[in-house]
């Protein structure tokens, strides 16, 4: 089946889905994006993803190119046309098409909107979670506003590639004080020896992950101890468990950090329980 992509008001075959060469997203990375999980044909936490999209747009002073009700229709129709049962839907909004100039384009320039959807293999993801993944740590190299979900991701690209070259799936950024900020495409968590579940507080130095917020709800419902504070690489290496969260991975156990095993090198019970309970606390639409 050929894929279908929504581009600026029209659904197009994937092979013909194009934007203008002077789109500011292409030339200046002047835009934002969201990635939402699709499960059993329904969008997971669409409301929260939309709220974060609107926040990112407001921070960059980019207007939403169509009403929210229309965006909702486009998202669901893109999923339907691609027959995605389990997968991801991607939304990207840029400042639009204009002559290349670092300053904002003339007033009235219409933002560009692209929405695509693709399938993922749920069984493969479950096998990956059952085995756990490895991460490596790298010095923080990103700009100071990663709370904005910008399409400018070159440091993340380089970090992810560095991880792959070392046989790992993810890279965790580490700030100048030795504390883990987050992953190249995920939020970072540990479970301490005392059983507390720890992740860094939200701020301009990390993205407020939607899966992160759902996990907080799961922890509260389960009565588990939650600590929102920074943790060091050294503390992570001594942790009982570690895991990461992202829309594409839900809750993914981490079993090695910088080549050293965590929790005996096997996924731990807390991460496994959080993964099992995740969708019972997420919103489906």
UniProtKB/TrEMBL annotation:
GO cellular component: cytosol
Example GO biological process: branched-chain amino acid biosynthetic process
Catalytic activity field: L-valine + 2-oxoglutarate = 3-methyl-2-oxobutanoate + L-glutamate; L-leucine + 2-oxoglutarate = 4-methyl-2-oxopentanoate + L-glutamate; L-isoleucine + 2-oxoglutarate = (S)-3-methyl-2-oxopentanoate + L-glutamate
Tree of life domain: Bacteria
One Gene Ontology molecular-function label: branched-chain-amino-acid transaminase activity
Pathway(s) where this gene product acts: Amino-acid biosynthesis; L-isoleucine biosynthesis; L-isoleucine from 2-oxobutanoate: step 4/4; Amino-acid biosynthesis; L-valine biosynthesis; L-valine from pyruvate: step 4/4; Amino-acid biosynthesis; L-leucine biosynthesis; L-leucine from 3-methyl-2-oxobutanoate: step 4/4
SUPFAM superfamilies linked to this entry: D-aminoacid aminotransferase-like PLP-dependent enzymes
One Pfam family matching this protein: Aminotran_4
Enzyme Commission no: 2.6.1.42
Keywords from the named record: Amino-acid biosynthesis, Aminotransferase, Branched-chain amino acid biosynthesis, Pyridoxal phosphate, Transferase
UniProt keyword Transmembrane present: no
UniProt entry tagged with the keyword Zinc: no
Cofactor(s) demanded: pyridoxal 5'-phosphate
Function according to Swiss-Prot or TrEMBL: Acts on leucine, isoleucine and valine.
Family that this chain belongs to: Belongs to the class-IV pyridoxal-phosphate-dependent aminotransferase family.
Protein name stated in the entry: Probable branched-chain-amino-acid aminotransferase
């Amino acid at each position: 089946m050929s894929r279908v992509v929504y581009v600026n008001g029209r659904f197009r075959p994937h092979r013909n889905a194009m934007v203008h060469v002077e789109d500011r997203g292409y030339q200046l990375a002047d835009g934002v994006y969201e990635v939402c999980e699709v499960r059993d044909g329904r969008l997971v936490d669409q409301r929260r993803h939309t709220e974060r999209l609107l926040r990112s747009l407001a921070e960059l002073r980019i207007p939403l190119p169509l009403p929210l009700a229309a965006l909702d229709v486009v998202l669901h129709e893109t999923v339907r046309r691609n027959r995605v049962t389990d997968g991801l839907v991607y939304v990207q909004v840029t400042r639009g098409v204009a002559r290349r100039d670092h300053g904002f384009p003339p007033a009235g320039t219409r933002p560009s909107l692209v929405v695509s959807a693709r399938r993922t293999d749920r069984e493969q993801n479950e096998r990956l979670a059952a085995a756990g993944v490895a991460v490596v740590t790298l010095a923080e190299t990103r700009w100071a506003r990663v709370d904005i979900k910008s399409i400018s991701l070159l440091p993340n690209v380089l970090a992810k590639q560095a991880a792959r070259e070392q046989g790992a799936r993810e890279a965790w950024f580490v700030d100048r004080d030795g504390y883990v900020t987050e992953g190249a495409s995920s939020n970072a968590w540990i479970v301490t020896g005392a059983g507390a579940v720890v992740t860094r507080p939200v701020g301009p130095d990390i993205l407020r992950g939607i899966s992160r917020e759902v996990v907080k709800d799961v922890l509260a419902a389960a009565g588990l101890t939650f600590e929102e504070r920074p943790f060091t690489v050294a503390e992570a290496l001594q942790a009982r468990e570690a895991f990461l969260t992202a829309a594409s991975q839900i809750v993914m156990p981490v079993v090695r950090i910088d080549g050293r095993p965590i929790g005996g090198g096997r996924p731990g019970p807390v991460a496994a329980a959080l993964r099992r309970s995740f969708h019972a606390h997420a919103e489906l639409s």
